[in-house]
Amino acid sequence: MPTKKKISKVVLFKRIRALAILATVSVFGFNSCNSGVPEAKLVLRNDSEKTINFMKIQVAGKDFEQRDILPGTERMWQFKPNREDSFLVNGRFSADVPIQTASVGRTNNTDTREHHLTVKENGRVSYSSPK
Fold first, then answer.
1. Where is the secretion signal located (predicted)?
2. pLDDT (tens digit, 9 = 90+) per residue, 117-127?
3. Which of 65, 97, 120, 122 could serve as 93's disulfide partner, Cβ 3.0–4.6 Å?
4. Do 95 and 60 share a domain, yes or no?
5. Is residue 3 part of a domain?
6. 50-84 pLDDT, tens digit each
């Protein structure tokens, strides 16, 4: 016959207190993980036949710089967008053709997780945002 084991009030209280502490720590951990703005991805593609010597993209208070981007290649960065930011792009091809644009695309939609900047043959930068 199985015997019933009695649990003392002190042991029961300690177990309940341990569960309460564990639940509190878990809630704080989940809140701190979800508190930030989700990160977005910035993708730069060189769609020209020339090598890009230098490229600098400014967005959300960050500067992303890259040198020697070969034709047909992509570079990716992650950033935390806010609703007022646009992309400021400066750069140059190997033949000293400037790549410059003031305000390309906007980060005003927090659902957009990817922002694509494509550099064309003539130095123009186009923006797209696939969902």
1. 1-29
2. 888 877 788 88
3. 97
4. yes
5. no
6. 888 888 888 777 788 888 888 888 888 887 776 66
CA pair distance 41, 121, nearest whole angstrom: 24
The alpha carbons of the chain give a radius of gyration, in whole angstroms, of: 26
Q: Residues 30, 89: one domain?
A: no
Instruction: Specify whether the CB–CB gap between 50 and 97 falls below 8 A.
Output: yes
CATH code: domain of residue 48? 2.60.40.2890
- Phi, psi (5° rounding) for residue 18? -65, -40
Number of domains in the chain: 2
Dist. CA 65–CA 92, nearest whole Å: 12
pTM of the predicted model, to two decimals?
0.60
Task: Give the residue numbers spanning the domain of 26.
Answer: 8-36
The size of the chain, in residues, is: 131
**Is there a single domain that holds both residue 47 and residue 102?**
yes
